[in-house]
Write a structure and sequence with these properties.
This protein is of the alpha+beta class. Helices cover about 20% and strands about 25% of the residues. The chain is built from 7 helices and 18 strands. Strands 1-2-3-16-8-18-5-4 form an 8-stranded mixed beta sheet, with helices on one face. The protein has a 3-stranded antiparallel beta sheet with strand order 15-9-17. Strands 11-10-14 form a 3-stranded antiparallel beta sheet. Strand 2, helix 1 and strand 3 form a beta-alpha-beta unit. It is globular and about 50 Å long. It starts with a strand and ends with a helix. The C terminus is likely disordered. Bound molecules: fe (ii) ion. Fe (ii) ion binds next to loops.
């Protein structure tokens, strides 16, 4: 039996008891999976894994989906995205400054991410924490009138950060090539979204890829999304996760927002990332969207 220690009073746990370089029994994985769904952030400290071993662990949570930014896929497997500020001969070795704003992964896809797994390879001397904000607690604390108001609403999502669309900014979404942009759909998700596994409702992606609300004028929609984002990213809902070399963290994208924190670009940092998908639901027909939004 693994023991789990809380990472914060509200959510998140860590364990030092599991060595993922060894075969992982179904019983032990079940314990990890239960800890993951109960606590939303699961950290497995001090791992030493190959790319293949890391990917095999991530696959236990769901099917991996390669990131649209294909120039930084791991050479051994496209399911692994390299996040790094390290340059070799002046060339970047990974994606830098990714996700430095509150968002949840793949909320711009109709089938979004269930879990993101990060494997910390090189830790910077200063900073580099990931901030998580608990969207289940944020939803629970809303006044009943607000819960009623948002219950039927569908947010419109596309790749990007609605708070910063300047492509030269470090807190914009990572810039896509024209070809990558052409692959990105406009889709919808419920704002008050039941968790696909536990059924517990969360505020879903009210920061990040949500650019509008179906059937609502843009200014009204943005102002409601901004109000919900300001509420749901308050310090009381947050956990700041600090990486050690070899740490693996798995987080529940249906229950959280998260944000990277910017660091000195010369302070080396490298992580590997695998993102796994959940099941599809809650779609609005593309024809309805096309009549509401210029696509
Ligand atoms: Fe992210």
């Amino acid at each position: 039996m693994a023991t789990f220690k809380p990472l914060s009073p509200l959510f998140g746990v860590e364990t030092f008891d599991v060595d993922l370089s060894q075969p992982l029994s179904d019983a032990t994985f079940k314990e990890l999976e239960q800890a993951f769904y109960a606590n939303q952030v699961l950290a497995l400290r001090n791992q030493r894994l190959t790319a293949t071993q890391f990917l095999a662990f991530a696959r236990r949570f769901g099917p991996p989906q390669p990131h649209v930014i294909d120039q930084f896929h791991h050479p051994d497997d496209a399911n692994i995205l390299i996040l790094s500020n390290v340059k070799v001969a002046g060339q970047p070795t990974g994606l830098q400054d990714a996700g430095s704003y509150f968002h949840t992964d793949y909320s711009y896809l109709q089938v979004p991410a269930r879990a993101t797994t990060l494997y910390s390879r090189v830790v910077p001397q200063v900073g580099g924490d990931t901030l998580f904000a608990n969207q289940q607690a944020a939803y629970d604390d809303l006044p009943d009138a607000m819960k009623k108001r948002i219950d039927p609403l569908m947010a419109v999502h596309q790749y990007g950060n609605r708070h910063d669309v300047n492509e030269s900014s470090r807190t914009a979404a990572s810039v896509l090539s024209a070809e990558q942009k052409a692959k990105m759909p406009v889709i919808t998700h419920r704002i008050a979204r039941p968790h696909p596994v536990t059924g517990r409702k969360s505020l879903y992606a009210v920061s990040g890829s949500s650019f509008g609300i179906v059937g609502m004028p843009d200014d009204e929609a943005r102002s409601l999304l901004d109000e919900l984002a300001a509420h749901s990213t308050q310090a009381g809902y947050q956990l700041s996760f600090k990486y050690g070399v070899g740490d693996i963290v798995v987080w529940d994208n249906a229950a959280l927002l998260h944000s990277a924190t910017l660091i000195d670009p010369n302070d080396a940092r490298t992580l590997w990332r695998v993102t796994v998908l959940e099941e599809s639901r809650d779609a609005v027909a593309p024809a309805v969207l096309a009549s509401t939004y210029a696509m």
